[in-house]
Specification:
Blueprint: E1 20-24, H1 30-42, E2 58-62, H2 73-76, E3 79-82, E4 89-92, H3 94-101, H4 112-121, H5 126-131, E5 135-137, E6 151-153
Helix pairs in contact: 1-4
Length: 159
């Protein structure tokens, strides 16, 4: 019996194939959508997944302004962040972060609400900070990543 066939393969950064994926967020629940997007960013849907390698896909989320939150979370949930200065603890609701996403001074593809939610679902280390850069979120149906030939997937089909 050949035992070499049972060897576990560990991919490295050069061997990983990064695809571009488009996800439509229309009428999706924010937390459930972001949990599936976090798995796409990590690469957990790929057979070559390795926890210490960036082996996920680049994800483009369109129609982010049509995402929903159940109950009264849009006005009652509070996200905290700290500026680093004394008395610098700030708080914001999802409603405020959604309005901030329409601000023209925010870099395109950086949606404050989605970044806040996704940071909690990714690893809190260098790998997590690199993975969050592979997510691009846009309020409308248009995005500037047509040159990458992204594939449109139905997020409801993923587990």
């Amino acid at each position: 019996m050949d035992t070499i066939s049972y060897r576990t393969e560990f991919p490295n950064a050069q061997q990983v194939q990064h695809d571009w994926v488009v996800v439509d967020a229309t009428d999706q629940v924010l937390g459930r959508l972001c949990a599936k997007v976090a798995k796409l960013l990590r690469g957990k849907y790929k057979p070559s997944y390795s926890p210490n390698v960036e082996c996920g896909d680049n994800v483009i989320i369109i129609n982010a302004d049509k995402v929903v939150l159940t109950g009264k979370k849009m006005t009652d949930r509070i996200y905290l962040h700290y500026t680093g200065y004394p008395g610098g603890q700030r708080q914001a609701t999802p409603e405020v972060l959604m309005k901030k996403s329409f601000n023209k001074h925010i870099k395109a593809g950086m949606h404050p609400l989605f970044i806040q939610v996704m940071k909690g679902m990714l690893p809190k280390n260098r790998l997590g900070r690199r993975l969050i850069e592979n997510m691009h979120v846009y309020n409308g149906p248009n995005h500037p990543h047509e040159a990458q030939n992204p594939t449109v997937i139905d997020i409801n089909k993923l587990k």
